[in-house]
Amino acid sequence: MKSLLIGVGQAGGKVATALAEFDERFGFGAVLDVVAVNTATADLRPLDCHTVLVGSHRVSGNGVGADNELGAEVMRADAGEVLDALDGRLTSRAEAVFVVAGLGGGTGSGGAPVLARELSRVYDVPVYGLGVLPGSDEGALYRVNAGRSLKTFAREADALLLVDNDAWRTSGESVADGFESVNDAVARRVGLLLAAGEATDGVGESVVDASEVVNTLREGGLAAVGYASAPASEDAADNETVVPSVTREALLTGGSLPEVRAADAALLVVAGRPERIPRRGAERARRWLSDELDCMRVRGGDFPLDSDRLAALVLLGGVERSERVDAFLERARAATSEAVDAGDAREDPVSSFEVDELDGLL
Ligand code: GDP
Q1: What are the start and end residues of each CATH 3.40.50.1440 domain in the chain?
Q2: Residue 351 pLDDT exceeds 60
């Protein structure tokens, strides 16, 4: 799926460029271009892509801290500059735009939903969000910001693919090393997802294409992606149990959003050498997913990849029912309701949740 990536904020810029590097390293050609947007000059400097500084009239290139309302405000004022930067970059070849951001901070948390709205207004291609949830060791403010941002972002984007910073960090890892591991894991999973449909080698009737990704995300709302791989035998018949087993692992332990056990739609992509992919095993894995997720719409397809391993990539669409997401929303609601009690809220955020709005972001 040919995509343009727009990274907003520090995490957004790093994750978007990691994805582009993965795509380039494997020569998939699914990432058309990357644009990074930030309020902080220092965060843009190390990035190897086109950059846009927003909000300099307000914060002089020094960032907005973790104030996502200010992040939303400056994006509202300067979205035109981002759209100008897309001229010649967002061409008719693009099948999707991904707005990538960490949801716990300020620039990405507030700016990404605003930008998604502007892009949807101007362009016909689907606008997807790729949002990073803060890990459990980050402060309460980050979790509150994330709760407010994710609900707005999910509403403004055609679908919001969530990645949990707790998902793939190994114990004992520093926060910075943890980010690197998460960025690598996201780059591989989302990179393969975008690459699925770009495949030209060994094309067969069961090869997945970009429309299946689009259709799985068509339900809107929240989405998640899982991945696992295992060594494969040369003979497909010997891999009958490998595909169901990596599919289970992709869903149960390899997911970008832990605890997701239900979805409105799913896509199972089996990646590997075509002659090693067992048809019956892939069919069985699809049926298992359908039962496990209580989901009638499980699409499937192969992704021919020159590797000694077989991998399962599982895309889930419509996963609002995750307990992890509910916890973020609940915390955001509780924190803002405490602020109302203390008399320092800017407006009544609790009632804004009740009407399905989030205070001040949009
Ligand atoms: P912003 O620049 O104001 O948008 O804020 P940041 O992007 O620095 O931080 C927002 C959230 O992203 C926080 O919850 C951080 O934990 C997380 N974060 C920051 N950098 C990275 C990164 O490189 N990778 C990942 N996965 N998360 C990050």
Answers
A1: 3-195+323-354
A2: no
Ligand 1 pocket member 102 (CB < 6 A)? yes
Q: What percent of the chain has pLDDT over 70?
A: 90
Does residue 254 or residue 38 have the better pLDDT?
A: 38
CATH 3.30.1330.20 domain extents, the chain: 225-317
Return the CATH class of domain 225-317: alpha beta
Residue 258: the pLDDT is: 85
Q: What is the DSSP letter of 170?
A: P
Ligand 1 pocket, residue 162 CB under 6 Å: no
CA 96 to chain centre: 13
Pocket test for ligand 1, best of 179, 180, 257 (most atoms within 8 A of CB): 179
In this prediction, residue 340 carries a pLDDT of 53
Closest Cα partner for 149 from 37, 69, 63, 254?
Answer: 69
Whether the pLDDT of residue 157 is over 70: the answer is yes
19-54 pLDDT per residue, tens: 999 999 999 999 999 999 999 999 999 999 999 999
Residue with tokens 């609002």: 320
Domain 3-195+323-354, CATH class in plain words:
alpha beta
Cα distance between residue 18 and residue 340, in whole Å: 40
Q: Is 134 in the pocket of ligand 1 (CB under 6 A)?
A: yes
Q: What is the DSSP string of 68-107?
A: HHHHHHHHHHHHHHHHHHHTTTS-TT-SEEEEEEESSSSH
The pair of three-digit structure tokens given for residue 46, joined into one six-digit string: 């190390």
